[in-house]
């Protein structure tokens, strides 16, 4: 693996973690978004799935977003008979978003992003030193 491969792998990792952060932020922003009519479904939590990719020419594996899907877990029910989306019994379907899960996922994605950024910075520094050695 050469310097450009290392930088490419780090960049791919950063793109993947950026997508993960964006999805977590969207989920957090919609954690209270209900349907607008009685019995209507609220916002459904989104998930991101990754896949490994292989550059056959260099033999280097990397990561990319495979898909953005929806979490099919059950909605929570909250008793609020005055809400416009309340059903006949007074319950409102609430999104299947857990703020704690989204915050933890955001922190994990942030740390992974930082690790990839660190790798890229170290690689750039090594490349710069190698160029400087060739000049001397």
UniProtKB/TrEMBL annotation:
It comes from the Bacteria. Pfam families: Flg_bbr_C. Keywords: Bacterial flagellum, Cell projection, Cilium, Flagellum. It is found in: Bacterial flagellum basal body. Residues 89-133 form the Flagellar basal-body/hook protein C-terminal domain. Its main location: other. Belongs to the flagella basal body rod proteins family. The basal body constitutes a major portion of the flagellar organelle and consists of four rings (L,P,S, and M) mounted on a central rod. The rod consists of about 26 subunits of FlgG in the distal portion, and FlgB, FlgC and FlgF are thought to build up the proximal portion of the rod with about 6 subunits each. InterPro entries: Flg_bb/hook_C_dom, FlgC. This is Flagellar basal-body rod protein FlgC.
């Amino acid at each position: 693996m050469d310097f450009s491969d290392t930088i490419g792998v780090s960049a791919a990792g950063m793109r993947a973690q950026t997508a993960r952060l964006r999805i977590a932020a969207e989920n957090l922003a919609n954690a209270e978004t209900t349907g607008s009519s009685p019995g209507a479904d609220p916002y459904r939590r989104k998930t991101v799935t990754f896949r490994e990719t292989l550059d056959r020419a260099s033999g280097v594996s990397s990561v990319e977003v495979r898909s953005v899907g929806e979490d099919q877990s059950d909605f929570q029910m909250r008793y609020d008979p005055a809400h416009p989306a309340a059903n006949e019994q007074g319950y409102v379907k609430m999104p299947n978003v857990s703020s704690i899960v989204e915050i933890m996922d955001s922190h994990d994605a942030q740390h992974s992003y930082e690790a990839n950024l660190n790798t890229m910075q170290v690689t750039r520094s090594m490349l710069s030193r190698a160029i400087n050695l060739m000049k001397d």
